[in-house]
Write the structure tokens for this entry.
Amino acid sequence: MTDASLRPDRHALVVGATGIAGSALRTQLIAEGWPVTTLSRSAVVEVEGERHLEADLRSPADLTRVLGAERFTHVFFTAWARQATEQENITVNAGMVRDLLAALDGTDLQHVALVTGLKHYLGPFESYGQGAMPDTPFHEEEERLDVDNFYYAQEDELWAAAERLDFTWSVHRSHTVIGHALGNAMNMGQTLAVQASLCRELGLPFVFPGSETQWNGLTDMTDATLLADHMIWASTAEGAGNEAYNVVNGDVFRWRWMWPRLAGYFGVTPEGFDSEPRLLETQMAGMDATWAAIAQDHGLAEADMSRVASWWHTDADLGRNIEVVADMGKSRVAGYTGFRRTEDAFIDLFDRLRSERVIPNW
């Protein structure tokens, strides 16, 4: 925890506050006494301790109009917009970082934190896991891959703005994030909860969709609450700024160990890897009407299955034929000691989804 509650001179801008990372971050900042402003293109449900601004992150003019008179000490950038090609990803996502910080030129920024991910080491979706990659566990000092990657372009824009505006910065390279966010395009925890709920309702086995490598190999994940805590730490702890950090829970596991535990929570029968991946996009094809019926029967908050599950993303994550583990040593040496048991992160998320009626509460 930080001493932010004793520092009313701090004012945080959270960009992407409706996403998995942003939702957890705004909650923790408010709990620690920070004045918080959120920014997105659409309205959000404001909670006590924050206010919301609406602006199109892809429009420099709109950002200047909305942010020109604002004063923030800390910016937490957790947003991204998926595009058809990596060149388009670079244009749009690096542009959002550049234009947002340009709109804040002349303010008294102290720190800007940027969330990216382990595709820094694996490559973007277009060339994911192809070519030469560093050995696991991934370390922050690895050279960039020789491929186009919007994470690299975002970092370059961040560094250029930091030199121009004289603020400290941090980059937070998370693995797959476990957290709560409706309508998020990359949400494995919630996706697996929807898969298991459908399996329970229909009496189907809970089938692992991924590769043999993922089933048997070691991996790790990132809980959204730990990511939020890490971002606040890096933005306030003495000597922690101007660094890129991996951010994972701190434990490792094999899916062949985790899968039966997730199945046990939902009371469904687990099935592991069997000769080839069994993709969720195939397993769950045609289930939209079934989910809508389940939502009606159980009074769920969201009947549109596309708003609660992202089959493609979980297929991509669990279909990898490479081991993915990140090293947290750099953060430990710098003084960060946060830890989150991944099984507990899943269970806490499932409990919340049930309590908020995102999935049935059998």
Observations:
- The chain has a mean pLDDT of 93.
- The chain has two domains: 12-177+221-247, 184-219+253-323+341-356.
- Residues 12-177+221-247 form a domain with the Rossmann fold fold (CATH 3.40.50.720).
- The longest helix spans residues 86-103.
